[in-house]
Amino acid sequence: MKLLTRTIVTFFLGTICLVGIVHTVSHTIILNSYIRLENEEESGTVQQISSAMDNQYSALNAKLTDWASWDDTYKFVQNNNSAYIESNLTPASLNTFGVSYLLFYNSTGGLVYGIGVDLGNSSKMPVPQSVLSVISATPQVLNFPKINSNFTGLAVVPEGPIILASQPILTSEGKGPVEGTLVFARWFDSQYLQQFSATTRIPLSEELYSNWQESNPVSTYISIPPSTYIHPVNADSIAGYYMLNDIHGLPALVLGTIQPRSVYQQGLTTLNYVDLSVGVVCVVFSIAMLLLAEGFVLSRLRKLVTDVVSITSHDDLSAKVTVSGNDEIATLSGSINGMLGELEKKTAQLTKAERFSAIGELATMVAHDLRNPLQGISNAAFYLKRTKGPSASAKEIEMLALIEDDVIYSDKIVNDLLDYSRNIRLELTETNPRLLLKETLSTIKVPENVHLQDETDDSPTLKLDVDKIRRTFTNIINNAIDAMPDGGPLLIRARKSGQMIDFVFTDGGAGMDKEVQEKIFTPLYTTKAKGMGFGLSISKRIVEAHGGHISVESAVGKGTTFTISLPLNIDSRAGENY
Amino acid sequence: MSKRKNAILVVDDDKSITTSVSALLELEGYEVDIAESGKEAIEKSNGKFFDLALVDVRLPDMLGTELLNAMKETTPKMAKIILTGYPSMQNAITAVNEGADAFILKPVNGDKLLGVIKDRLQKREAAATYSEHRVAEFIEARVEELHRQNRETNTAR
Question: The domain containing residue A405 runs over which residues?
Answer without folding.
Answer: 328-418
